[in-house]
Amino acid sequence: MYIIIRGYVQTYTIFFTFAFLKNHTYNNYRMEKIAMVDLFGQYKKIRNEIDSAIQNVVESTAFINGPAVAAFQKNLESYLRTGHAITCGNGTDALQIALMSLELEPGDEVITTPFTFIATVEAIALLGLKPVFADVCSRSFNINTDEIKKAITGRTRVLLPVHLYGQCADMDSIMDIAQKNNLYVIEDAAQALGSEYTFSSGVKKMAGTMGHIGCTSFFPSKNLGCFGDGGAMFTDNPELGRKISSIRKHGSTVKYFHERTGVNSRLDTLQAAILDVKLKYLDQYNQARAKAADYYDDALKGIETLTLPKRMKQSAHIFHTYTLKTDPSDRDPLREFLKSRDIPTMLYYPLPMHLQEGYLKYGYKKGDFPVSEELCSSVLSIPMHTELKEDQLEFICNSIIEYFKSG
Could you give the domains of the chain? Predict the structure, then answer.
């Protein structure tokens, strides 16, 4: 049994080592290769705890709905200060199950942002609901509440804001709009788990706990990520909590008895055990990201044609990504310049949802959401993770500065 466990752990070790720890020479000195996300570096610091958690699950053989799942859910409820945290197979399932729990009718409308990952809109479309888009704010990148108001019709049932890049949308206004129009609010908090939002009343709540239901993903690169796929839903409403729990288990609360149509979406015990360890370090991880963001802010603030991430006073920014905005004519050349120096970048996102081929059927066209369209041609995310070292940050910033000076 010990050999099997060691082999399991070593598989992860070998994978992450090859992916993230190759060394390169920069400016005549050795520096670890810069990664967009350094999962192995993070794992090394808590290796003993993670390995022990994995070993305990393997020895128990309780791979589905084992004790670690219930323990993680309880600890997540405590961390988020919410009544119910219900895990599932992935973040996309979390969104779909949340929508299913509201018992909506085909053709009902869900207002969301066109500047997001496909899962947000995909879950709406899969249920025969109609995604209705509202443009975003150019500085925060989050949904514009004035545009939400314009998009509401007699068929609107749900507002689905996305807390993009690690910062919450304007939940003061969103909850006010929802209350006045008798709408549900589902938060897509996959990029902001651990961010705290302060309402104008002074009340503080965590991302994912402000609406009727919150959803998140535990994809490995998330601020709280597992070693595979995983997701969760949050609610303070006991009835919604029971529905959500039932739906994710084939619509069942008692085995072999099914009171509603459901799905099969479970967080496996190994992932729950890993996440329970990492949850203890989530605030520390978010603080490390904020420290790296501070470095970027200070080093890059003098570049006139570069817009740095805006930090909203009501929401803590946990920097799931550090996303710059530049002139569209500079974005791709800058990306190529950084690539030539082995500095990875990502485009989150290159094409808005309303212009994706699979979603043209909803009748939108180019020009309908100009802010989102402009952002897709001008945003660039640079490395952001918990293990960034000062020499790496310096090299990244100096390279960006050099590009703009040479131009």
Answer: 50-279 (3.40.640.10), 282-406 (3.90.1150.10)
